[in-house]
């Protein structure tokens, strides 16, 4: 049917162009043609709105899942430090790594600080909405989002709201959001946050309006997004590829949907709700959370000093980062540990951090280098549990660990694994105990201590939380446990 209509319109356009001598009349016809075609394309929206009027069901909300029910230790043990070598003792000879050990990757000099720039996504629109994002300024097409005026939240009022939103100008805005997400190297969750921030720039939208527009705009970007309502409140839900911890959800035949409020940092609390069991024809894509590519942000505006001593050698570095990047990460949900291990640091932070640490590794053996990085993470960061620092469980990405004043076991494990992989090239896995997380490092030479054999490789325990411990030492109190391996 669509092909026949397009063929008819094309033939009509060709005939008209032959007989039409007035360019003004042709432009008038072309405008009407585009309007008629838009009406046909939006038939999906009309069908969806009709469906929304009657097909709502009450759905039971599932309780939130927890990653680790065992509390982290409030205080951590300290291993007995090795005695410092006497001045007349010759240092341990340098041992060349075996051929199978990956060489240290070349680290380029730190680039000049990134100067915030303006990205123009107006796409020919003169009027603009200026949107700050990650220390950058985005010039977006003017947002045309009218208040929806829901005096009462019902299936009919939500269906009417969908048609109201469908009649607004949104295609240019959607295209601008997708272009901006690509330029900022955002993953799907970051794109959802960008979408919400853009919509929130209209201060005339109330909370329910903002949830409905977020739903509409995410559906128009192809994401499997839903809404539900209960007692006058509208809830936004996302289908997500990863398991989210601490987030309530409900399950339909089409999959699991998490309750999300993109404006808040903490999970929302909700009981049973009403929702629909059929999705818009254009929205089937689950949100994928993947920070293995770091988003692009503006200049680094914050710095923190990290320092310690290793065998009478002082180590002090300045970590540089962007404060809006930290705020951006704070709006990410809680994930399984492997996604924290996979996450990349922004280029400016990464290059500065690695450049400062690499000279301290020059001439060291594999075990010495692993121990230096281990002691650096153990002693340059102060320890507190998430409950002490945040009042709730809050795993940190490596960039966040460089910002917050305290770090618990999983935060240290993530940072240590990052430094070992980027500076030494060794493979690393996570070790998950009940109430504790450490790491183990694949080594090329025999080393003393606790180790595991995985896929033909020897992994030696390295615990960045066990103060003064060397590679091979399991933290006191966890020696009898067999940990789960976190492969990433």
Q: Low-confidence parts lasting 5 or more residues at pLDDT below 50?
A: 1-21, 36-41, 84-116
Gross morphology = elongated
Cα gyration radius (Å):
28 Å
* Sheet/helix structural class: alpha+beta
Q: Give the CATH level 1 class of the largest domain.
A: Alpha Beta
**Strands side by side in the biggest sheet:** 14-15-13-12-16
Please give the largest β-sheet. 5 strands, antiparallel
Oligomer: single chain
- Give the CATH architecture of the largest domain: Roll
CATH topology label of the largest domain: C8orf32 fold
What does this structure look like?
- By secondary structure, this protein is of the alpha+beta class.
- The protein has 2 domains: 115-276, no CATH class; 302-486, C8orf32 fold (Roll), CATH 3.10.620.
- It is 33% helix and 18% strand.
- It is built from 14 helices and 16 strands.
- The strands form 5 sheets. Strands 14-15-13-12-16 form a 5-stranded antiparallel sheet. Strands 5-6-8-7 form a 4-stranded antiparallel sheet.
- α3 (43-52) packs antiparallel against α4 (155-166) and α6 (188-200) packs across α7.
- The two termini are 49 Å apart.
- 36% of the residues are buried.
């Amino acid at each position: 049917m669509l092909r026949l209509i397009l063929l008819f319109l094309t033939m009509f356009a060709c005939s008209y162009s032959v007989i039409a001598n007035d360019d003004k009349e042709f432009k008038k016809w072309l405008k009407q043609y585009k309007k008629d075609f838009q009406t046909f394309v939006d038939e999906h929206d009309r069908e969806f709105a009709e469906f929304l009027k009657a097909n709502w069901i009450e759905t039971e909300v599932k309780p939130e899942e927890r990653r680790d029910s065992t509390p982290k230790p409030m205080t951590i043990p300290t291993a007995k430090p090795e005695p410092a070598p006497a001045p007349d003792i010759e240092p341990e000879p340098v041992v060349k790594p075996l051929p199978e050990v990956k060489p240290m990757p070349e680290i380029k000099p730190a680039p000049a600080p990134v100067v915030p720039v303006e990205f123009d996504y107006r796409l020919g629109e003169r009027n603009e909405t200026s949107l700050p994002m990650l220390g950058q300024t985005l010039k977006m097409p003017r947002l045309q989002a009218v208040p929806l005026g829901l005096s009462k939240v019902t299936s009919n009022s939500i269906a009417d709201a969908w048609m109201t939103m469908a009649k607004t100008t949104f295609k240019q805005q959607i295209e601008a959001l997708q272009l901006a997400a690509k330029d900022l190297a955002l993953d799907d969750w970051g794109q959802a946050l960008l979408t919400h921030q853009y919509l929130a720039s209209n201060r005339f939208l109330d909370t329910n309006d903002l949830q409905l527009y977020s739903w509409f705009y995410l559906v128009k970007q192809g994401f499997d997004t839903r809404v539900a309502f209960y007692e006058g409140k509208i809830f936004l839900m996302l289908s997500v590829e990863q398991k989210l911890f601490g987030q309530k959800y409900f399950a339909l035949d089409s999959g699991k949907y998490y309750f999300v409020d993109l404006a808040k940092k903490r999970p929302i609390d909700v009981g049973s709700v009403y929702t629909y069991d059929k999705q818009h024809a254009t929205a089937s894509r689950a949100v994928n959370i993947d920070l293995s590519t770091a988003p692009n942000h503006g200049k680094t505006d914050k710095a923190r000093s990290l320092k310690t001593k290793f065998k009478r050698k002082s180590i002090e570095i300045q970590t540089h980062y962007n404060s809006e990047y930290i705020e951006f990460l704070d709006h990410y949900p809680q994930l399984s540990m492997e996604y924290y291990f996979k996450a990349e640091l922004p280029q400016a932070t990464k290059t500065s951090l690695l450049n400062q640490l690499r000279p301290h590794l020059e001439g060291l053996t594999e075990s010495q280098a692993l121990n230096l990085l281990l002691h650096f993470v153990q002693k340059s960061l102060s320890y507190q549990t998430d409950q002490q620092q945040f009042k709730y469980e809050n795993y940190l990405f490596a960039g966040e660990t460089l910002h917050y004043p305290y770090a618990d076991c999983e935060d240290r494990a993530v940072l240590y694994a990052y430094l070992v992989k980027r500076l030494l090239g060794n493979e690393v896995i996570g070790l998950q105990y009940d109430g504790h997380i450490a790491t183990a490092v694949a080594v090329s030479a025999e080393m003393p201590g606790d180790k595991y054999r995985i896929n033909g490789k020897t992994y030696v325990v390295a615990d960045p939380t066990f103060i003064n411990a060397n590679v091979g030492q399991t933290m006191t109190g966890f020696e009898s446990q067999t940990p789960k391996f976190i492969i990433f």
